[in-house]
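Open question from group meeting: does this chain pack into something compact, or does most of it stay loose? Before anyone orders reagents, we agreed to write out a predicted structure and look at it together. Recording both the input and the output here so the notebook holds the full record.
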Amino acid sequence: KVVNLKDCPQAQIELEREVKRIRADPEYSSLFRATTSPTGR
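Structure tokens returned:
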């Protein structure tokens, strides 16, 4: 189902919370850096 985040701030908050939790996970953070910056270092 599709949820418009503008119409549903609660979903936006939960999404951001989930993203923060994933970014905090070291296993995911390396994966995140690989996807967000393809050039890397």
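Observations to bring back to the group:
Residues 5-31 form one domain.
The mean pLDDT is 76.
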